[in-house]
Amino acid sequence: MEFLSEFPALGRKDLASLKQGIDESFRSFSRAYGPEIEAFFNPLLKFLIWFEKLLLGTPWPIVIIVIAALTWLGARSVKVTIGSVIAFLIIGFLGMWEDTMATLAIVSVCTVLCIAIGIPIGILMARSDRTQAIITPILDVMQTIPVFVYLLPVVMLLGIGKVPGLLAVCIYAAPPIVRLTNLGIRLVDRDVMEAAESFGASSREKLFGVQIPLALPNIFAGVNQTIMMALSMVVIASMIGVKGLGGPVLRSISNQYLALGLMNGLAIVALAIIFDRVSQSYGKRLQAYRETGHG
Amino acid sequence: MVKHEIQPLDDSIDEPKVSIQKLYKIFGDTPEAMLDRVRGGMGKPELMDQTGHALGLNNINLDIPARKIQVIMGLSGSGKSTLIRHLNRLIEPTDGEIWVDGEDVMKMDAKELRDLRRFKMSMVFQKFGLLPHRTVLENAMYGLEIQGVSTKEAQQRAVKWLDRVGLAGFEEQYPSQLSGGQQQRVGLARALATDAEILLMDEAFSALDPLIRTDMQSILLELQEELHKTIIFITHDLDEALNIGDNIAILRDGEIIQSGDPQDIIMNPADDYITDFIRDINRAKVVRLRSIVKKGATGAGETLRGGMSLEEALPKLHKSVDGSCPVVDKKGNPLGAVTLDGLIDALKAPETEADDEVRYS
Ligand SMILES: Nc1ncnc2c1ncn2[C@@H]1O[C@H](COP(=O)(O)OP(=O)(O)O)[C@@H](O)[C@H]1O
Ligand SMILES: [Mg+2]
């Protein structure tokens, strides 16, 4: 009876030593390989710092002009362009310029990183059901595991700082782009692929000439989601030493600074809206050819 | 049933461009293991019932002559798409041989196969298979691009072919902006632009409205007058087959049940299945004098050509004092003569055994 009412758990001592063993081996692993791992991520850190300095070192009117130009190129909408210029002016006026640039830097670098890693993985997934079966559960874990659980080993390995923050953001933000690249390629019309094949296209020519161009709208939806998720991580990332708009939000929570929290929170929202509008209308333009007209 | 003797219009011998020999295709988990049963005579329904394997093609033997239009006809599911996709190995056979210009397609490695598809065969699809993100011009250029032709030359050649199929001025449009007929013209231009000698057309016109379909058939025949490609044309439509086919092979359950001269199929259907198939055609339009000519006979009327339809011949026979006209082949050599009675006889559709049973029971 006792067996049923009491779960046959490991004894307290065994359990403690098990956990201790895991902790101990991870610690010795990070002690042994910590420097190598840090060196591995060093170029990334350098790039992030360089980009942040670039944004902060450039006179603010030029930054705003560049932002306006990029917004225009992406969205082709006067409304969105003027809206984002006004948003940045208000952000600067309210003293959040530097934090905003820092956040912009980490979100941009993270997005580039996610694209650079995520799209090739998505392509591999689309090419083999086996790879898909292996990677899908990993993506599920990446998206559902509580952030703090993987923040811990990252911090143990790399300490507090920009790189662990960047990695944490990327782990959280990368899955959509992988998933949507995979999906986009798998959704490419079989008849079109067959036609390409019948003309003797090699698999390279099929990938770059047919599959990726036709998957682009989906891939772009993935980029959009990745950016949004990266932005939503900035507050948590600030807990492990990432500078930016997240820092003041965190401080305002512990000190009950309502206005500070609100202002910085709204600045994050403003960034999110701008990114979203721009990338969405760009994505829509990518599939302009789908519109039917008259012959 | 009387066997009609069909006189050839010219005596040139057709050299085979493509030769299919003992070709089998079985779909399922262990197709090779099923080969013996199929060779032993097991049919498509039994194979499906007993083993869950689909019999796609069953011992196909077909020589396809160069510079002619070979039609392959059959109802939906008879294996037409499967067969045509074997010619460029979009589908791998379970067993058998495919020869193109004396080369064994089955022995080709990946590169040779790509070259075959790039330079020797091009394909037109029922659902067009156009690249939706490319303009009409870029679509027509696709095969040339894959061949490695320079952009400039590819553009020129693609523009020329778009013009030939009547799409001049549409170069910068996207496929989604065109009607079905126009889209298939793009498909045709894309296939012709590569200068491949062999054109594979899988129900290329089946998705189009009837009027547009006959339009496209005329375009194809016009082009063929000049290009003399080897065309393998799939259709489920007998009228289309008779309109464009130099030769017709009829497929049922993955087997060729009759193959040859269209006139032979109309006049001497091999079995009841085909008899049913040809029952509703307008015989006055499709039966030619060469199919009903009496060898050695002669007539008092105007001299007629063997390729003339009964419909056209009727008034001439009517005018002839003895109700009979001499017939000649393409070169003017006498084939014999036709009579009014013979013509009227040929207008009757052949009967199946089932018909006989109804009549005599
Ligand atoms: N990939 C496949 N897997 C299983 N069965 C198939 C496959 N492709 C075709 N078949 C079967 O082969 C037969 C012939 O198909 P198909 O060549 O498409 O016919 P058609 O083009 O004449 O309509 C059909 O019975 C079909 O069910
Ligand atoms: Mg078909």
Descriptive overview:
Chain B: Keywords: Amino-acid transport, ATP-binding, CBS domain, Cell inner membrane, Cell membrane, Membrane, Nucleotide-binding, Transport. The complex is a heterodimer of chains A (295) and B (361). Chain A is mainly alpha-helical and 295 residues long. Chain A has a single domain, classed as MetI-like fold. Chain A has 14 helices and no strands. The longest helix of chain A has 46 residues. Chain A is globular. The mean pLDDT of chain A is 91. By secondary structure, chain B is an alpha/beta fold. Chain B folds into two domains: 205 residues, P-loop containing nucleotide triphosphate hydrolases (Rossmann fold, 3-Layer(aba) Sandwich); 65 residues, Alpha-Beta Complex (CBS domain Like), CATH 3.90.1280. Helix content of chain B is 40%, strand content 22%. In chain B, β12 and β13 form a beta hairpin. In chain B, α7 crosses α8. Chain B is globular. The mean pLDDT of chain B is 92. Classes of the chains: A mainly alpha (295), B alpha/beta (361). Chains A and B meet through α10 and α11 of A and α4, β6 and α6 of B. Magnesium ion (MG) binds next to α3 of chain B. The site of adenosine-5'-diphosphate has 11 residues of chain B, from β2 and α3.
